[in-house]
Amino acid sequence: MAGRAGAAATGIVKVETGGVPVVRLRGVHLHYRKVEALAGIDLDIPAGCMVGLIGPDGVGKSSLLSLVAGARAVQAGRVEVLGADMSVRRQRDQVCPQIAYMPQGLGRNLYPTLSVEENLQFFARLFGHGAGERRRRIDELTQATGLHPFLRRPAAKLSGGMRQKLGLCCALIHDPDLLILDEPTTGVDPLARAQFWELIARIRAARTGMGVIVATAYMDEAQGFDWLVAMDRGRVLATGTPAAMLERTAAASLESAFIGLLPEDRKRGHVPVVIPPLTADGDDIAIEARDLTMRFGDFVAVDQVSFRIRRGEIFGFLGSNGCGKTTTMKMLTGLLPASDGRAWLFGHEVDPHDLRTRRRVGYMSQAFSLYGELSVRQNLVLHARLFHVPEHEIPERAQEMAARFGLESMMDELPASLPLGMRQRLSLAVAMVHKPELLILDEPTSGVDPVARDAFWRLLVELSRRDRVTIFISTHFMNEAERCDRMSMMHAGKVLDSDTPAGLVEKRGAKNLEEAFIGYLLEAGGGAPPAGSPPVAAETAPAPERTDAPPHANPRFSLQRLLSYSWREALELWRDPVRATLALGGSLILMIVMGFGIGTDVDDLRYAVLDLDQSSLSSNYQLEIAGSSYFTERPPIADYDDLDRRMRSGELAMALEIPPGFARDVARGTPVAIGAWFDGAMPMRAETVQGYLMGMHQHWLAGQAQRRYGVEPVASIAVENRFRYNPDVRSLPTMVPVVIPLLLLMLPAMLTALAVVREKEMGSITNLYVTPVTRSEFLLGKQLPYVGFAMLNFLLMVLMAVTLFGVPITGSFFALAIAALLFCVIATGMGLLASAITRSQIAAMFFAMVGTMIPASQYGGMIDPVSSLQGSGRIFGEIYPASHMFTISRGVFNKALGFADLSASFWPLLVAAPVLVGAAIALLRKQEG
Amino acid sequence: MLRRKIGNIYRLGVKELWSLWRDPVMMVLILVAFTLSVYSAASSMPETLNNAPIAIVDEDQSQLSQRIIAAFYPPGFILPAMIEQSQVDPGLDSGRYTFALIIPSGFQRDVLAGRRAQIQLNTDATRMFQAFTGSGYIQQIVMGEITEFVQRHRAVTVPAVDLALRARFNPALEKSWFGGLAQIINQIAMLSIILAGAALIREREHGTIEHLLVMPVTPGEIMLAKVWSMSLVVLAAAALSMNLVVRGLLGVPVAGSLWLFFSGAALVLFATTSLGIFMATLARNMPQFGMLVVLVLLPLQMLSGGSTPFESMPKLVQTFMQLAPTTHFVKLGGSILFRGAGFDVVWPQFLALAAIGTALFVFSLARFRRAIGRMA
To answer: Which CATH number is B54-151's, of 3.40.50.300, 3.40.50.170, 3.40.190.170, 3.40.1710.10?
Structure first.
């Protein structure tokens, strides 16, 4: 099928190997730390034709394409694309609008929460098209690809094939001269794949001269390309037309041709897979499923699936990504409880709590899912133990598995350092370590090269035929499905048909299994046949704008691009209510917690008295304290032991000791001392106690003097203490103005930090690498919505302060709002900085937290003023923006200040904002690697 | 069956330890949390009243006013800034000074003549801590100077009753003592929640949880394995930090039994690791988990009595915080480490911690069992 599409392409463009190459590589090397991804590539890719990069995963195809697209920085060698040297920034910037790049993975550069229309709008804006132009292009492209009816659907809800089409539309929105597609059809069903290639052929027919470079792991697909580059282990094995390659190796298919091209040591031991006939007892059923159904909400993932698998049989599930294969397998393993229907393993109904049946089953999930942090041996041993293989057999068993699956030489290595094929074998070894009778393998060979895949299959055959292990395997490779004893074709949650592969081909009267599958898909309403699609619009309107002056001159700074990022970010935030509510609701909750929670007033301190005088004067002294609301009196202390015990237990925060002869000594004028013991374990509380006590003592003394001498002695000299701004000395009015900036710093910083790193993790950061958007546009654009969001947060918190906490704003709200705006820019700037230097979301979050919460609460003057700090803490506190924001916030809330009074605190904020954002921009990379 | 269960729990836990060991980021985080951040937070806390910024307006320019000015010196106060009356308000407004003392003209004359005389002390009461303690100090210092001055010129008229203030368990009121303890408690809470939660989310993100679930192990075993292994790590790190950083570097004397303290810590860890797992089942991914961590951790740290006195919080908050393991831990830690309390004194905290831990564990396990189907 793909062959057909490719043949159409060949018919249009003649390979001009003699012309100027579209891509010229000389001595290109690429390393990821120690791993060599490209080992000296010299390659000229001819212009204007369909070029295929073939080879299994991990041979350097993607690395090569990302270099050509300018997404990755050139490390060594020379990369020339459309005549521009990609290691020179100016040349790269100039040429990049002519290149379109669709990275690997289904729609990795798309935004899943955005609709088809919004995704396209976003990309169109990045390339500077006006509104009318955008509309025209989007309509054209979506009509051509059949996406037009789905404009409003979020990208995440598209099927794999549709997502690829959307990716293609996004790539074509700016009329590129070179289209780079990295494994565009991996995991897409054959019908959608055929349609995709048909589409590419039609686009190329309309836009002659556009070169297309495609990487693919499906060898059969590459059959119809104009020119091929076979790659292995970072090197080019061979180049040439498919026909030439087949001729050279005297092979019937590209897959065997590729194996033929491999160097001797790679294909050593490779023998074609031979499957001996199955001798199964028809009544010995290993798995039976009857009307299994799985619903997630109103989405039916698996729809009344029934099948029976005999013991010792290799049974295959063939279908595209998302057709329900994995879900069915999970239901069989008990990982997911079925919504409807029943299933039996070895005659026992599947029960998630049945640990004994689990021991008879081995399961290998789709993605590599062993512990990457454990060595090969540790993985084997751990699984053997968890399956309760008798302890004395374990070392032997691990060794046996290693020998059988060829892992002996790498027993102490970490899985991450192994090639993919080895890891698959390890997964199988782990699944087999307890010698199960049934193996459930979910796409075990995706991404494994043909040699390793054949080796893997020989193991499966051996397990099935020699050990009579029943194997239930899912795949999206036709040639693998052909090897199964029997198979089911699945689409959209339904089993289309089940039979032996040959039987299925025969039933449809098709040439091969792929054709048979497409036949079933068409019957199931999987889409119109490719030939019936409407013509590409570009065909009718031969892209006049391309001949015009460059439609998108590439200005150094474009507000449109910046705003398109803002618009997109805002949309994403809007569509992810969990993040937004956590941030907004969270700040309000935290404000309540901290506002009410952090008090510095000390009330209800428990104290007791050891009165050794028992005079009226000593009672008089006690009354002074008992009358205070700060203290709560406990039963008197009996003796020193009692005092010690009660203080030690924490019952008493303070103990007073009035010495014997106290009244007498006072009367005589002999110096006498009252002892006050207080708990110093918590110094802050102790200091407050100390303050209270001293005040009360002074007061008592003054009272005594007046009574005794009838005069006001020195007491007539008073220190009149005016507690300014907060006459009642309550802590709430002083804490609220501090808590607001603290939260305003922490949460926006964290949200913003995640915003950039998320793109790095999801892969959409590629759009920064390969579109004309600059780093400053990217970061400022992303920052904008978060500043707005933080300001909303600020207003809510102020509202809460005034209403709920009853802390009025005494100064200029305008000044506070301006300061808050600056501060939000700073907080989000810190987030950007954190995200620019980290790669994972968790690291970014950690950075943002360490960079905001700790310095703000410890050095920002939240509790002890900055002017009281010492050493480096002092310097840090002086320059850290939060300390100035605290001053402004307190000034406006408590001190009735305005702009003029606080100007000194505004300057540091004005400086910090551009410094932080500038640093983030400087540290962010415009290319990967 | 039980042996098998225990075997599973043990092996899965060892696996967690390996995973952690090979995760450099987490290891660095643990190291930094228990060394640098404990040390810096504890040692950078100013001692008692430290360098309190004070300014004095001396309109008297007398012998007495000079005496008063000379009475303020570091480390308690910064050397007083001599300012004009007009500078008082701006200085306080901008937060340059916490205190401004105004000695009126003719003050010494009035004092000696026995007339009413007043010194005005302006205190920035938005800085609660300094304002409160400092103003008491200042009053005492000023009055002391005046009394002494007057005594030389007149007869004593005040009863000679002194108040001998003695702080027990931390005689010099060194903040680094309590700071070190509070930091260790904070780090224990933070790391145990993050490690346990992240261990679960990592399994989910790497797809390994699926793997565990098809094996003959139960969710309870998976959870217990995470609880014990992560607790052990945090406990070991905390013990090292306590001995090397707090007792060694910071020189904080420990009055009670460290064994008792760390037994309490183990109970706290049981509770906090369960909490971490619970939060990990709520969050769909790491970022959401991170947000949740902030929302939970901050109140735990601020309201448990580790940063401000527990007694001073509103009653409602106090009651609510009885549910938090850290509240009991702060109390228990203070009693054992500073007051040298034994089990006879702190058993109520142990009981409370055991109850909270069990409740959190049971609750988390129920939630984990329900969520696990959706995780795979």
So the answer is: 3.40.1710.10
